[in-house]
């Protein structure tokens, strides 16, 4: 409910004329909605030859590991 509320609230805020604030709400709602799917996407991208090597670079690897770990049992 929280994720859907933020996403649809962001759409409403964009429609009433505050596009920057609305887009921030939409992005936050999008991440909340699909956070369970991100580990699957990260795992797939790591298997792609060029993109996988980019995700293993030192600065990017720690960020991708945090995004790619799954803490909730959905």
Automatic annotation (TrEMBL):
A GO CC annotation given for this chain: cytosol
InterPro entries membership: Got1
Coiled-coil regions, chain positions: none
Keyword Methyltransferase: no
Membrane-spanning parts: 5-21
GO biological process: endoplasmic reticulum to Golgi vesicle-mediated transport; retrograde transport, endosome to Golgi
Keyword tags: Membrane, Transmembrane, Transmembrane helix
This protein's record includes keyword Iron: no
Name of the protein in its database record: Golgi transport 1B
Gene: GOLT1B
